[in-house]
């Protein structure tokens, strides 16, 4: 049996919750499929958020997402803590069918896809073997376990620098390894790290192998891309901050995506190639990738969805 809704929102980060707030206030009582394991998106794994407008003293990521959830519920949003396994659209009626992992099925006149993205893996020997035994993709989740131990962070963007700064509170040292000689990170993040005496840099360098024993990660082999020389540095924690993969595979061709899997939309709108399906946040944004830009796109997706639902009447 299925449950008919005006609109289902898949995803519960800033984009999904903002879309729910707007659609709820418009009287559509949206259903949010928030996810079973990681509701709230990547911000639930973030410490202090300093750049979200309205919080001059900053706010913890989990607190920000909890506030958004409560605000969405205040305006009539219903939340299901499960994962979507498939989505389909009826060519004749235009009705979208959303199937959840527990077998529940929801029909909807409109969909908002706000599933964000997943951590990208490095793909080197030892990464899978030592996942959870020194290899991590979440500094705020695991940093505490490496108190007074050497730590490596791989990456060169804002996320890598944020993680390096955070991990310097715990580790005896933090070495940031980046494959280029320049960084993608914002200037303020780079300068903050350069002033931190516990953070060192290995540039023009790539991780070749992660090594360890029964106790976990012990060292990392690094290759200099300019000289081709390799070196081995001690490390008990290796944190990957090398980007993300959009969480769009479950759509199985329902909407058009680019070569990297990001959902493509019509111009400045959030309309996808499938009528009645809208996309917002990191599942369609490979450029800005900020909480505030995701929230803004959630607003736009809600307004586009509302216009579509009004047109059906």
Average of pLDDT: 93
Q: Number of helical runs?
A: 6
* Coarse morphology: elongated
Question: In the CATH hierarchy, what is the superfamily of the largest domain?
Answer: FAD/NAD(P)-binding domain
Looking at CATH, which topology of the largest domain would you report?
FAD/NAD(P)-binding domain
N-to-C CA distance:
25 Å
- Beta-strand portion reads 25-35%
**Secondary-structure element string:** EHEEEHEEEEEEHEHEHEEEEEEEH
Number of strands: 19
How many separate structural domains? 2
CATH class of the largest domain: Alpha Beta
Unreliable spans: none
Structural class: alpha/beta
Biggest beta sheet attributes: 7 strands, mixed
Backbone CA Rg = 21 Å
Share of helix, binned: 10-25%
What CATH architecture of the largest domain would you give? 3-Layer(bba) Sandwich
Structural summary, described in words:
One of its GO terms (cellular component) is cytoplasm. One of its GO terms (molecular function) is thioredoxin-disulfide reductase (NADPH) activity. It catalyses: [thioredoxin]-dithiol + NADP(+) = [thioredoxin]-disulfide + NADPH + H(+). Belongs to the class-II pyridine nucleotide-disulfide oxidoreductase family. The protein has helices spanning 14-25, 61-74, 139-142, 158-167, 187-194, 291-312; strands at 2-10, 31-33, 48-49, 59-60, 78-80, 84-89, 96-100, 105-113, 117-119, 135-136, 150-154, 173-177, 199-202, 205-213, 216-224, 230-234, 237-240, 244-246, 277-279. It is α/β, with parallel strands linked by helices. The chain folds into 2 domains: 4-118 and 244-312, FAD/NAD(P)-binding domain; 121-240, FAD/NAD(P)-binding domain (3-Layer(bba) Sandwich), CATH 3.50.50. Strands 1, 2, 5, 6, 7, 8 and 19 form a 7-stranded mixed β-sheet that branches. Helix 1 runs parallel beside helix 2 and helix 4 packs parallel to helix 5 (187-194). The two termini are 25 Å apart.
């Amino acid at each position: 049996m299925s449950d008919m809704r005006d609109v289902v929102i898949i995803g519960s980060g800033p984009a999904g919750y903002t879309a729910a707030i707007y659609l709820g206030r418009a009287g559509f009582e949206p259903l949010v499929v928030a996810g079973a394991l990681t509701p709230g998106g990547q911000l639930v794994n973030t410490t202090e958020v300093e750049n979200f407008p309205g919080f001059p003293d900053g706010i913890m990521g989990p607190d920000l997402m909890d506030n958004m959830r409560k605000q969405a519920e205040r305006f009539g949003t219903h939340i299901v803590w499960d994962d979507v396994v498939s989505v389909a659209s009826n060519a004749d009626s235009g009705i979208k069918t959303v199937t959840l992992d527990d077998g529940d099925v929801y029909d909807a006149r409109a969909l908002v896809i706000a599933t964000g993205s997943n951590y990208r893996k490095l793909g080197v020997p030892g990464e899978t073997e030592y996942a959870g035994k020194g290899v991590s993709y979440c500094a705020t989740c695991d940093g505490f376990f490496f108190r007074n131990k050497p730590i490596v962070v791989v990456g060169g963007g804002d996320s890598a620098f944020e993680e390096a700064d955070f991990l310097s509170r715990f580790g005896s040292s933090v070495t940031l390894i980046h494959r280029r000689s320049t960084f993608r990170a914002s200037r303020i993040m780079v300068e903050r790290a350069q002033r931190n005496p516990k953070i060192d840099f290995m540039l023009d360098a790539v991780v070749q192998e992660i090594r360890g024993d029964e106790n976990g990660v012990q060292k990392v082999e690094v290759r200099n891309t300019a000289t081709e020389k390799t070196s081995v540095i001690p490390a008990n924690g290796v944190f990957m901050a090398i980007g993300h993969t959009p969480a769009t595979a479950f759509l199985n061709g329902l909407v058009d995506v680019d070569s990297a899997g990001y959902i493509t939309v019509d111009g400045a709108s959030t309309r996808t190639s499938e009528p009645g399906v809208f996309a917002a946040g990191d599942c369609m944004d490979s450029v800005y990738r900020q909480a505030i830009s995701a929230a803004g796109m959630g607003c736009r997706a809600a307004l586009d969805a509302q216009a579509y639902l009004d047109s059906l009447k």
